[in-house]
Amino acid sequence: MRAPTLRSVTVLGSTGSVGTQALDVIAANPDRFRVAGLAAGGGRADLLARQAAESGAEVVAVADPAAVPALREALAAHGASPEVLAGADGVAEVAGRPCDTVLNAITGALGLTSTLVALDAGRMLALANKESLIVGGPLVKRLARPGQLVPVDSEHSALQQCLWASGPRGHDPGAVKRLVVTASGGPFRGRTRAEMTGVTPEMALAHPTWSMGPVITINSATLVNKGLEVIEAHLLFDLGFDRIEVVVHPQSIIHSMVEYIDGSTIAQASPPDMRLPIALALGHPERVPAATPPVDWTRAHTWTFEPLDDAAFPAVALARHVGSAGGTAPAVYNAANEVCVEAFVKGGLPFLGIVDTVAKVVEEHQVTPAGSVEEVLAADAWARARAAELTAGQSR
Ligand SMILES: NC(=O)c1ccc[n+]([C@@H]2O[C@H](COP(=O)([O-])OP(=O)(O)OC[C@H]3O[C@@H](n4cnc5c(N)ncnc54)[C@H](OP(=O)(O)O)[C@@H]3O)[C@@H](O)[C@H]2O)c1
């Protein structure tokens, strides 16, 4: 077997759920990967300093300049002395510094700048921050060369793997009938809308199969995350929304499927462990050996599938609506949701109010083409302000 090429990787959002798992993958494969740079918000300075010391990162950035003194102190304690950058500009600078691959694992729309900088600098972009693709769809697609952007989301990683199976002569788009995106259904699967009235953040944060950061976990409970993923699939694989299905699969073993024109369906199966799609994105197009333990085929398994209840969880249908409208509509859906999730977590909005408010903001928005970063950011800012107005004075 050919020796793997050593790739330098910059990890943005290194202290989060995806970021820490990415550093695990990198540390377990020193013949394949080394760390070039790290960036985080600044809330976990000691962890970031330890990561810098253990990985030998040359540059570290924190978005919050107030975190710099704590970071410098922690770096000294860990015996590390990388270059330290601060603020949103510092994070963007790290995203553009020389390396082979940038992993963007920042949460939320504020990851857009780093996505654009990394693509513009010609880096391979391993994209966990789906929000940047949803918010800046046309801008990101215009910048990305074919094959430059590799998905980290387990569903899109699965879809990509299933698409590799389209034919013995390589990818054949004409052979694809539809994409089938799986959803665990979240902690409230099977409940009616009325049965979700009293949901608390603690209940919404208890995901049945995945351990993830707080925003994506709440988004999984409302199914907004699945809505974002449907738009992400549309943008990544260029299929119309009428050819992207969602099916609920509570065990989270089948991460998505592709149905072909001849009636064949190819599925990707592995235990719910983000280290597999992270490793595949970092090593792309090569597979990283033993990235995750495989499904144990010596045991009995029961895997079930059920349709999505659109009445109880309207977020996916709303995402199809904004995705079809295009332009600034997906950015508005995402921005309003980020405000509503924060309000819900702080006790300022009922659980059902999240998607209800997003729908109101989306309805009021005048869609424009999203032709520039300024236009997208203006739509994002408008949606945040409108969602804040609509949620003001509410409580859980
Ligand atoms: N978790 C998963 O399993 C999973 C799966 C699929 C996709 N994703 C996607 O991956 C992304 C990250 O999710 P996560 O669950 O890993 O989130 P998370 O655990 O909340 O971590 C977010 C990371 O972003 C950093 N950050 C916050 N603001 C920043 C800023 N302004 N500049 C730079 N870094 C900043 C945080 O730093 P601090 O620690 O300093 O706050 C932290 O390192 C999201 O887009 C999510 O939808 C996650």
UniProtKB/TrEMBL annotation:
It catalyses: 2-C-methyl-D-erythritol 4-phosphate + NADP(+) = 1-deoxy-D-xylulose 5-phosphate + NADPH + H(+). Mn(2+) binds at D153, E155, E229. Coiled coil: none annotated. NADPH binds at T15, G16, S17, V18, G41, N129, E131, G213. InterPro entries: DXP_reductoisomerase, DXP_reductoisomerase_C, DXP_reductoisomerase_N, DXPR_C, DXPR_C_sf, NAD(P)-bd_dom_sf. Pathway: Isoprenoid biosynthesis; isopentenyl diphosphate biosynthesis via DXP pathway; isopentenyl diphosphate from 1-deoxy-D-xylulose 5-phosphate: step 1/6. Its cofactor is Mg(2+); Mn(2+). Gene3D superfamilies: 1.10.1740.10, NAD(P)-binding Rossmann-like Domain. Residues 9-137 form the 1-deoxy-D-xylulose 5-phosphate reductoisomerase N-terminal domain. Pfam families: DXP_redisom_C, DXP_reductoisom, DXPR_C. Signal peptide: none annotated. Transmembrane segments: none annotated. Its EC number is 1.1.1.267. Residues 270-385 form the DXP reductoisomerase C-terminal domain. Keywords: Isoprene biosynthesis, Magnesium, Manganese, Metal-binding, NADP, Oxidoreductase. GO terms for molecular function: 1-deoxy-D-xylulose-5-phosphate reductoisomerase activity. Residues 149-237 form the 1-deoxy-D-xylulose 5-phosphate reductoisomerase C-terminal domain. 1-deoxy-D-xylulose 5-phosphate binds at K130, S154, E155, S184, H207, S220, N225, K226, E229. Belongs to the DXR family. PANTHER family: 1-DEOXY-D-XYLULOSE 5-PHOSPHATE REDUCTOISOMERASE, 1-DEOXY-D-XYLULOSE 5-PHOSPHATE REDUCTOISOMERASE, CHLOROPLASTIC. Catalyzes the NADPH-dependent rearrangement and reduction of 1-deoxy-D-xylulose-5-phosphate (DXP) to 2-C-methyl-D-erythritol 4-phosphate (MEP). NCBIfam families: Dxr (TIGR00243). This is 1-deoxy-D-xylulose 5-phosphate reductoisomerase. It comes from Nonomuraea harbinensis. The lineage of its organism: Bacteria, Bacillati, Actinomycetota, Actinomycetes, Streptosporangiales. The gene is dxr.
